[in-house]
């Protein structure tokens, strides 16, 4: 544009110089009067095109803010503005591709959430249901849409077990059964609840998972394992008893009775072992609810030391604690017996009782080989045992007792070898 104006000005000046050779000032004035209007018109036209481009840029940016990335610009000239337009169009292409990828991921996620067997409800603080997947609609509203409905209105037709589980707060299991249904048709669900803030407002996510089939499969597997363990133990005991009984009868027939006392003693030992085995299973299966009574630690530990050897670390708490003395004694006997059977030196089997802010902590420690990661994971599972003649009930019974008291039990390997089994009892 500037080159064009200069060319026009030079041509006008040459023409005037030819007609007015001696009047240079007049030539310049006439040139300015001719070129200036042309310059103003040309610059104004160029500025209008640039302003139009800037308005278009503003419009596309506004469209990007609204989530619309379908616009692009065109600039015919090959100058700096064309580079700006090309960069702007490239940005739009990138945003458009990212938006497409995001939509695809959201579609995939929504498909997965909608078709998961876990019923999902997202509820706002004020009560309306914000989101519900297909499983939630089938469970609570006969397949109809739930969004926009108030949760309390929907729950009026829900089972009393679900209402009770929601009223308790937190996570937990509950069982539902329709009126007139057989007990075999009971359905077991797990309720999980999580609260969080979404768009500055508090929301709660409810997850309802049906566990009936999984629990039945686990129940069958557990019974199979119980039967295998009991069958193995019975065979190990009954086979020698049968052989010994036959040998005793044969000796009596021959009149060789001098070995009968040894045979009868072996039969008695195997019978007592079998009786202890069966009683252990019965005790685990029929563990009663603990009878909590305020107990002083010193006399309780003195009585425990009369039944099993251990080293008491530190002084026990002076404050009384509410627990069932018979059950806690049984749990500690199991743990101390395991510690001695681990191969630990007897003087390294210890018990420590400490007062905590949340309750009382009991640590049973040994200097045996400890446990591998796999054993630590499964040690508290009923009937799991790494011992050849073990029943897998000692630690499981200790866990049942601790949890029945409202406490918990943990296992950890010690630095330098050995194991620490910790029972935490709430302060009663």
From TrEMBL:
Subcellular localization is given as: Membrane
**Membrane topology category:** Multi-pass membrane protein
Gene Ontology MF: a single term: phosphorelay sensor kinase activity
Single biological process term from Gene Ontology? osmosensory signaling via phosphorelay pathway
Q: Which CDD domains does its entry note?
A: HATPase
Domain Histidine kinase, residue spans: 229-428
The main location is membrane
Instruction: Print the keywords alphabetically.
Output: ATP-binding, Kinase, Membrane, Nucleotide-binding, Transferase, Transmembrane, Transmembrane helix, Two-component regulatory system
Q: Which reaction does it catalyse?
A: ATP + protein L-histidine = ADP + protein N-phospho-L-histidine
Q: Where are the transmembrane segments?
A: 25-45
Q: What is its EC number?
A: 2.7.13.3
Q: What GO CC annotations are associated with the protein? A: membrane
- PANTHER family noted in UniProt: SENSOR HISTIDINE KINASE GLRK, TWO-COMPONENT HISTIDINE KINASE
Q: What is this protein called?
A: histidine kinase
Source species: Duganella callida
